[in-house]
Design a protein that fits this description.
By secondary structure, this protein is an alpha+beta fold. Helix content is 25%, strand content 22%. It has helices spanning 56-66, 99-111, 136-144, 173-176, 231-235, 246-253, 305-322, 405-408, 413-423, 425-438, 472-478, 483-498, 527-540, and strands at residues 117-120, 127-130, 166-172, 189-200, 213-214, 242-245, 262-269, 272-276, 324-331, 350-359, 366-374, 376-379, 385-395, 442-450, 462-470, 503-509, 515-521. Helix 6 packs across helix 10 and helix 10 runs antiparallel to helix 11. The chain is elongated.
């Protein structure tokens, strides 16, 4: 079949553009000139067109898996070109409150929530509810988390500040927390040594919970003579500028750790300072749980502050004499200066070392004369003698009616010592400083617990569960005691006192506050009280 010319399809030859550089068109065709073009690759994955959820992780996932090889173009971006002068943005969200306001609102909401605990009323026998904020268990947990009741307890002052006392100096602990003075260990010399020491019985190092020993009572005499009553310090008055005992110096040097109140008498005589203590004060009594979150009970009860302090002092004195060998002694050239012929009883094992310590600093160089104490002497495997101080840690709070030390001392002694470091941080620091001042080679701790809980109606005994030994300087680092800072504190207080005129002063620590105050007092202060007590004894005698 032959088609005519009209029936044949039209075929137009397309125009071919010559590209001398390469292949393909050299210009955009007219019909495609206004259409935007985004380059792409055949290997690109198809993902979400847009994401309004705001999920950052999902965005990163989509970007990593669905990102285009040629990048993201700007051809389909939206640009707003209208006038926005009449446009106003209205914020309908809630205003942001501060952290304090949010915490306060949260506390108010939880305070008024419905109670959840029910208890039986002993009078009516009916079940009653206890609000959460009044639940003793919750209050106990609150205290255990560090919200202690120290600020709520009313602590007694060690001395009453009288109206005729004049405030001279006030020092806050924050001002002396970062003081630094090089420890003059190499320049310390011993001037006088006197007394008699007994050797330590090493059998006490083998005591365990299964082989505990009862604490025996001793009838030995312990002398707590103050600075100005010491006859040897009077002999050494020309050797130095500052005079004190190791217990007084340790209290001053560790004052930032103290929480209870204490006071020290300062007498400025010419260019010399004498740090003293009151005769009727409890300065030599040991504290118990002074730095714990929960302080011991108040006035009443067997676990009150006063009774616990007396118990700790009693345990410390008896333990320090029980673990010695009475027949093996070391005598110094001079006898105990405080032993009197009229004393009824055997003196305790103690040696007094009068040491000369230079106090360097930015001011004038000063010399300190310190009377320090050593409790015992021991020998090493090579036969070398070492001085030792012996102290006792006592357990008094039986949680759940059972002794925790009897269960954990042999296996978890480190945890028990860490707890003591937290609760008795000040007392341990005083013992460490006193041992360093005395030049003791060892510091021995004994763990003593009650044989019976308090309140049983019978006499309370004590048992020795074990011992532990440290080198004083290493133990100071273990309890975070910076001796350079301690010497800096002592030097600052000495310089403050040297700037005062001659007279009598009282260094007073505020109870529960980190403040030291120095008051100028009349010369007859505290002497009238002693005279009155002597007169009362004389009046009671003839009757």
């Amino acid at each position: 079949m032959v088609l005519s010319e009209d029936e044949k399809p039209d075929f137009a030859t397309p125009g071919v553009v010559n590209n001398p550089v390469g292949w393909g068109p050299i210009a955009i065709p007219e019909q495609y000139r206004d259409i935007p073009y985004q380059p792409f690759s055949k290997s690109d994955n198809l993902g979400q067109i847009t994401d309004w959820t705001g999920n950052l992780l999902e965005r990163r996932y989509n970007y990593r898996n669905y990102n285009q090889q040629f990048g993201t173009g700007q051809h389909y971006s939206y640009y707003h070109e209208e006038d926005e002068s009449s446009f106003q943005l209205v914020d309908t969200s809630k205003p942001q409150r501060s952290l304090y306001q949010r915490s306060r609102a949260r506390y108010q909401r939880t305070r008024h929530q419905r109670p959840t605990q029910r208890v039986q009323d002993p009078k009516t026998g009916r079940m009653t509810v206890i609000p959460k904020y009044n639940n003793p268990v919750r209050r106990n947990n609150w205290n255990q988390r560090g919200h202690d009741n120290k600020n709520q307890m009313k602590l007694k002052a060690s001395v009453e500040v009288r109206k005729d006392w004049e405030l001279q100096v006030e020092i806050e602990f924050s001002q002396i927390a970062k003081l630094h003075l090089q420890y003059p260990e190499k320049d310390i010399s011993t001037l006088v040594e006197c007394g008699t020491l007994e050797y330590y019985d090493k059998k006490f190092d083998r005591i365990t919970m299964k082989s505990e020993r009862p604490l025996a009572m001793t009838n030995r005499l312990f002398h707590h003579v103050s600075t100005t009553d010491d006859p040897i310090i009077r002999e050494l008055a020309k050797e130095g500028h500052v005079f004190a005992t190791d217990s007084i110096l340790a209290t001053i040097m560790t004052c930032p750790r103290s929480y209870y109140s204490w006071d020290i008498i300062i007498q400025r005589v010419g260019s010399r300072l004498f740090f003293d203590k009151r005769d009727d004060s409890g300065f030599d009594l040991l504290t118990v749980n002074e730095t714990a979150n929960d302080l011991p009970g108040g006035e009443g009860g067997n676990n009150s502050l006063n009774k616990l302090s007396l118990e700790a002092t009693f345990i410390n004195q008896n333990f320090s004499q029980q673990c010695l060998k009475p027949k093996e002694t070391k005598q110094f050239k001079r006898p105990n200066p405080f032993v009197d012929e009229d004393d009824q009883g055997e003196p305790s094992s103690v040696a007094y070392r009068y040491r000369k310590i230079p106090l360097m600093g930015t001011g004038e160089p000063l010399t300190l004369i310190c009377r320090s104490e050593i409790d015992a002497v021991t020998t090493t495997a090579s036969g070398e003698e070492q001085f030792m101080n012996i102290k006792a840690l006592n357990e008094w709070d039986f949680k759940g009616g059972a002794s925790e030390w009897r269960q954990k001392l042999d296996t978890q002694r480190g945890d028990i010592l860490t707890t003591e470091m937290k609760n008795n941080k000040c007392k341990l620091a005083k013992w460490t400083v006193s041992s360093i001042l005395a030049g003791a080679d060892l510091l021995k701790f004994g763990y003593v617990t009650r044989s019976m809980p308090r309140g049983s109606g019978e006499s309370i005994g004590h048992s020795i569960l074990g011992t532990q030994q440290f080198i004083p300087k290493q133990f100071a680092a273990q309890i975070s005691l910076d001796m350079n800072n301690a010497w800096g504190i002592l030097r600052v207080i000495v310089d403050k006192c040297m700037q005062l005129s001659e007279g009598k002063y009282v260094l007073y620590k505020e109870p529960g506050k980190g403040i030291l105050r120095i008051y100028k007092v009349p010369m007859n202060t505290f002497e009238e009280d002693n005279d009155d007590s002597d007169d009362d004894e004389d009046e009671d005698g003839p009757k």
